[in-house]
């Protein structure tokens, strides 16, 4: 049996630790400051599998944690790892991956695992809808919704919105994506033509990790529009301009960890166990 060490993160880490424990694994969790006797040096030396959070980091210096913790420096973590360790995390920076490669440390990024990214779109979509309903005084039923992009998350989100009887339009730069969206029964508009229709939507969901909703487009939206951005930070919306116009706009990152931490923990557990079984056996 492997010894697991879970560092930082959000509620997903706690649920993942419980699932690992329930399945007979030895688990150490460093999630907050409650255990003043905890030593990251000792914990890493006594563990084989190091489970870092999603995202791996937000400031490029420390592991991400919802709790302010002083001992999660990435440089210190890497210096303690050896070729006997296996490192997991979400959206691991390229320099960390390169260090692991150069030092023969096995490193696996959750975001490179198809089963995780696909399953996580469900929690992300449901979380985005929850945020929209919280932020808006209206309901989605029979309201016009715009989804920017048509990748994995956008497709799941569009289907969930359609299931709530919202009127859904997809916008994208690529004709192939618009054709796919149309074949699935969605209205479509080319991103280059969005200025002609953007004033028709009560809800806008952005999934494109680049500035899409700029000042010019935001000026054309309904004053009462609700904008939910689920793209990677910093998102694709000019939030500063939205504030000046009193437009409801919110960047919503880490939705699976907020709205479905238990399900997300189960998804991570299944992927981790499968990954380890393929490579070394458990």
Automatic annotation (TrEMBL):
Limits of the Dipicolinate synthase subunit A N-terminal domain: 4-111
InterPro entries documented for this protein: DpaA_N, NAD(P)-bd_dom_sf
Pfam families linked to this entry: DpaA_N
UniProt-listed NCBIfam families: PRK08306.1
Name of the molecule in the record: Dipicolinate synthase
Organism: Lacrimispora algidixylanolytica
């Amino acid at each position: 049996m492997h010894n697991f060490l879970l560092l930082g993160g959000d509620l997903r880490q706690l649920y993942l630790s419980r699932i690992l424990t329930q399945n007979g694994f030895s688990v150490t969790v460093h999630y907050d400051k409650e255990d003043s006797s905890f030593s990251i040096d000792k914990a890493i030396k006594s563990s084989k599998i190091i489970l870092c959070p999603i995202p791996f980091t937000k400031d490029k210096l420390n592991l991400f944690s919802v709790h302010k913790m002083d001992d999660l420096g990435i440089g210190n973590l890497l210096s303690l790892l050896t070729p006997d360790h296996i490192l997991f995390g979400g959206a691991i920076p390229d320099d960390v991956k390169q260090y692991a490669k150069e030092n023969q440390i096995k490193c696996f990024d959750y975001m490179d695992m198809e089963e995780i990214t696909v399953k996580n779109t469900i929690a992300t979509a449901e979380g985005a809808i929850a945020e929209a309903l919280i932020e808006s005084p209206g309901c989605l039923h029979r309201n016009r919704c715009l989804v920017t992009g048509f990748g994995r998350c956008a497709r799941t989100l569009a289907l969930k919105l359609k299931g709530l009887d919202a009127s859904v339009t997809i916008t994208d730069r690529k004709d192939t994506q618009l054709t796919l969206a149309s074949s699935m029964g969605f209205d479509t508009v080319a991103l280059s033509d969005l200025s002609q229709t953007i004033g028709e939507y009560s809800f806008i969901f952005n999934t494109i990790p680049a500035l899409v909703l700029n000042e010019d487009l935001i000026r054309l939206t309904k004053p009462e529009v609700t904008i939910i951005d689920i793209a990677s930070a910093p998102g694709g919306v000019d939030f500063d301009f939205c504030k000046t116009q009193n437009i409801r706009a919110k960047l919503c990152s880490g939705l699976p960890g907020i709205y479905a931490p238990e399900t997300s923990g189960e998804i991570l557990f299944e992927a981790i166990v499968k990954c380890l079984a393929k490579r070394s056996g458990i």
